[in-house]
Amino acid sequence: MDSLAAGTQDVTDSVDATHAPGVLAAVHDLMPLLYEELHRTARRERRRFAVGDSLATTMLVNEVYLRLVGSPGFNTRGHFLAVAAVAMRRILIEAIRSQMRIKRGGEFQRVDFEHALEVEIADDEKILAINDALQVLAVRSPRLAQIVECRFFAGYSEAETAQALEISERTVQRDWATARAWLQRQIEPTD
Q1: What is the pLDDT of residues 126-169, one digit of tens each?
Q2: Does the pTM exceed 0.70?
Q3: Alpha-carbon distance 168 to 147, whole Å?
Q4: What phi-psi label fits residue 73: left (phi over 0), alpha (psi between -120 and 50 degrees) or beta?
Q5: Radius of gyration over alpha carbons of the chain, in Å?
Q6: Interatomic CA distance for residues 113 and 147, integer angstroms
Q7: Rounded distance, CA 161 to CA 71, Å?
Q8: Whether 92 contacts 153, CB under 8 Å
Q9: Residue 115 CA to chain centroid, in angstroms?
Q10: CB atoms closer than 10 angstroms to residue 178
């Protein structure tokens, strides 16, 4: 078992040992156990979304904590990570919208969704277009939207997404392909 899987198992065991099945773990219980994982995710996403110096990595993790501290609790590690991914997406989108308000201007440009999934996303308008399309997708299919949030906004692998959403990797693969195709149709210009 590699060190990441061993670390994940240790966290899962700690959460299970501290909280009986069906008992909700509070954010202040889970945050110390998962802080490093959230910090790595935040660092990666800050670089990927190029939100600038206005939102430091630690500040992003702390903001996620502040958003989640009022939650009633989490049943599993995966549940916590899925909710944290949504919170991180919302914080990043808010930071980008704030930057856009400062810039004041520019028309939204359509972008090929596959191209938007490149390692670095420097164009704030593209991120906002994907976010807007994702909100529509969430109404049509909440699970597809959750998969996009985990894969695209939180940068989780298929395995991490499956664990966070408590579904199979095959379901993640199938739904990720479906969600990408749907979002691509929404974002690409029609000919």
Answers
A1: 778 888 888 899 999 999 999 988 888 777 889 988 988 889 99
A2: no
A3: 12
A4: left
A5: 17
A6: 15
A7: 21
A8: yes
A9: 19
A10: 15
